[in-house]
Write a structure and sequence with these properties.
7-stranded mixed sheet, 5 helices, globular
């Protein structure tokens, strides 16, 4: 019998299979915190697994992109604002945040991460489940290339020297 991977949402009764993506923060979140985040209604985690392994996981939560500085009322990203018709421009826009995303070290470089990102993009534009326009991620510097290769853009240059960079993906580009 073939050991075919399945993607499923974890529940409070889920038994998590071992996971190691060589990033301690991502490993710890999956094993120690993902069920607690679910219980507190803070994030939902999905796992790609076969009968014995957790191949990959991602956690998502609601977010928003703030496009106007509340103190100065200045636009943060002109690129972002230009994509929205004038009559629909708001100080912030609904999005879904990829809170955590990891692929087991034995499955990396097989395009599993890109396939899961495409699944997520399709998931949120199909029947417009949440009314979100964007996907966001606080990408660690080592992962910005991966997200850039998958169509994500930097929201602002102000975080260039930080450990993580805020990146976004416009779901309208995937919907077309």
């Amino acid at each position: 019998m073939e050991n075919k991977p399945t993607l499923k949402r974890i529940t409070s009764k889920s038994v998590l299979k071992p996971f190691d993506c060589d990033v301690p923060d991502l490993n710890d979140f999956f094993i120690d915190d993902s069920l607690n985040y679910l219980k507190q209604l803070l994030a939902v985690t999905y796992v790609l697994e076969d009968e014995t392994n957790t191949i990959a996981y991602f956690s998502i939560l609601n977010d928003k992109i703030i496009n106007r500085d509340p103190k100065t009322n200045q636009t943060i990203s002109n690129t972002l604002a230009r994509k929205i018709p004038n009559e629909k421009r708001w100080p912030s826009y609904p999005s879904v945040k990829i809170a955590r995303f990891g692929v087991h070290k034995n499955y990396q470089n097989l395009r599993i991460g890109s396939k899961l990102l495409n699944f997520l993009k399709q998931f949120f534009i199909t029947k417009n489940k949440t009314g979100c326009r964007y996907m966001t991620v606080d990408a660690h510097n080592v992962a910005t290339g991966f997200y850039s290769n998958n169509g994500f853009k930097f929201l602002t240059p102000k975080d260039e020297t930080e450990e993580t960079r805020l990146m976004y993906f416009d779901l309208m580009t995937f919907a077309r």
